Amino acid sequence: MYRLCLLGCVVLLVACGEKAPDEGAIRVSVKYGSFKPACVRVEAKDAKGNQAATDILSSQFKNVEKNEVLVAVRRKADWDATLGITVSSYAEGSGNQCSGEAVERFTNASLTVVPKKFTRFDVTLEAVDEDRDGSPTGIEWAGLSDCDDTRSDIHPGALETCTGTEDLNCNQRMGCQEQDCVNTSCDDGNPCTDDDRCTGIGPTAQCMGAERTCSKAATCMQTSGTCNKATGECEFKPQSYGSACVDSQTCTINDFCDGSGACVSGTPTPCPARTCFLPATSGCVANNDCIYPPDPAQVNTACVDPANQRPGWCRTGDGACSTFPYRPSNFDPDAVPAADIAALITTAEVTFNTDTLTWAPENAVTNRNTLKPRLITTLNGGLSAVLLPVSSLTLGGTLRFVGSAPIILAVYGDANPGQSIQANGRFDSGATVRGAGGNHSQCGSATGVNGGVTSSKGEGGGGGGNATAGAAGGVGYSGGTTRSGGNPQNNDPLLLQGGCAGGDGGGTGTMAGGRGGAGGGALQLSVARTLTLQKPLSTSGGGGAGAIASRTSG
Hints:
With 554 residues, the chain is mostly beta strands. The chain contains no helices and 34 strands.
């Protein structure tokens, strides 16, 4: 037996044939069918206002095999003999109590308790639950009934997603219509939409996505298409016959669509003839990959550079249309703008200094302001040099170059100087003057050894070196010491580099040794057309100075 107490009453779960208590009791029988309530509540009260209630959870049911709950309610002595009994069933329980709305309620307001006897109150629940999901149906009540008693997954409180297409929780809403689904991700079932979202609130809400754009198509297909809702794939229609396209053949132009999605080859485009070159060996105009070998027969013939429309001559070697018909080894003649090339006109002997880029005397150069000399780094060897670009030479006297940098005189035309051009080492007013690029910092051991004094006789210094070793200095007498000349430098003929100074002569206290001769310079004369020389070009080193007898030692 199971015993449960009420306030003012005692509730006993009794068996059939059990003897009633002396004060009498009410036997309550609650029978149920397919719907097993989660909780049963028994309430008792009398006319004096005495009342009490107790909740019996389904886990406390004892006669589960008979689908019946038996309860005995015993009256206490101070209660009336007539009691009102109410039996309620519930679909929910919380803790040790019934919760939610009552599914069914049965009341007998006048049951007389007879001493030593049971007064019966039989209740049969009408609610059913054929799918055994705990949700009742078949009756009208304040809560939600099971809307499909054939499926256990459909009942009030069932879990639904915002993507769902069925009303599983019996609230007459589904998917995006649920309360918490506003603007959440969903699936509208259309493979041709993206970023599907729940739009709207309540029964009118629906899952909507953005229509997928078709923006990429194959050659000869329309640029925009439609999405196949069965597959989610973009489909494109062919472009009309004659629409322009580009086929797989690189050497055709005016290719066109055939109306069925294929590109038809158009007109062949062979490489046209090109000045300075033989016919193309491969490539075509349409693909911009024509390959032309140089034509040796056209070297030194006039042409126009197609890149900048600058006139020039077909160049030997690479066939380019260049301002020079050959490529100098150490500078690019085409890198000089045409506006920087002017005629060099002098009226007398003139000297150009490669350190200051100035002329002396200035008035001997009639157009010095139009000349554009510039310091460059040579393409071979990486040495510094001064490039003086001119269109022609008209000299009124010797043209001399001095300074620490060698000189490249580039003539973009014919050259007929008619005067001597020099980069010599020399004496000038008692001082040694090096030729352009002579006595440079790389001389080192190529400088001649200074002379000494033996037996009060001065001896000459050695000569400066360049491509070969410098000569030895003279001795003061037959038993004197020879002073060696400078070592040879790099003898690469393509390197533009001046010579080195000779050693100073030996001196005594009453006679100072003479200064060694200055190194010769480095001069490059590059002419685009015809060179005519009437007087020499010279880059020789200078001779040494004699001793100065009147000079005293400091």
